[in-house]
Amino acid sequence: MKFRTALLALMACGLSFPSLADVNLSLPYQAELVLVNGVEKEGNQPLVLPNGVNQIAFTYRDSLRENGDDFLYTSDVIIVKFTADDEKLHLQLPKLRTGMDGKNFNKTPQVTLVNDAGDTVVFKQDKLMKAGLQFGRDYEKEMVTYNASGKVAAVAPVVPVSAPIPGIPQAKDGTQPRNVAENMLNYWYEQADEVTRARFKAKINQQ
């Protein structure tokens, strides 16, 4: 019961946990998702993402015209990495009309990221390329390789959930202790600033 009270107190003090998702990203109809933070994803529905660094990969898909005929155009896979906190963002793409527009876009993809106020958000951009046949691609595996390369839009590998959290003591066999609640509480308390710690202590003392 005390741990539950302490956790509620931490939340009341405004301490952010990584599981809280506070970045909303809307996509244009031409953006067809491939990956979101290294996990395969389809469609172009609005995304709810965690605060901090995020990485998405998508293709531009739309009907274009070539020599009087319409065809479905699909661009190379575009990677966008950005950092944001508690914001509503909008990915913007140009309107392509012809096959030549598509070729030019593939050479130099024109991507814009803005917030609700219309301000441009800084981001890193690249392409996820594969030589040879493009059928049956394992995008998740390709992104792992890309991120390990340290290229412009690469992100640091995500630590698995089962991995020990820095600052939390481990058992002798290297595993996480059984009292996860206590250790998580200690960890997030250590991450808080002095003002948040003071509010946390005050909340506990009131119980």
Supply the key terms.
10 strands; 207 residues; 2 domains; 27% helix; 5 helices; alpha+beta; 30% strand; four-stranded mixed β-sheet; six-stranded antiparallel β-sheet
Give the termini distance in whole angstroms. 11 Å
* SSE order: HEEEEEEEEHEEHHH
The overall pLDDT average reads 81
Class based on secondary structure composition and strand pairing: alpha+beta
Helix content: 25-40%
Count the helices. How many? 5
Query: Can you tell me the residue ranges where pLDDT is under 50 for at least 5 consecutive residues?
Result: 16-20, 159-163
How many β strands by DSSP? 10
Q: Judging from the principal axes of the Cα atoms, what is the shape?
A: elongated
Strand content: 25-35%
Major β-sheet, in short?
A: 6 strands, antiparallel
Count of distinct structural domains = 2
Organism: Photobacterium aphoticum
Protein name: UPF0319 protein ABT58_03515
Family: Belongs to the UPF0319 family.
Pfam families: DUF2057
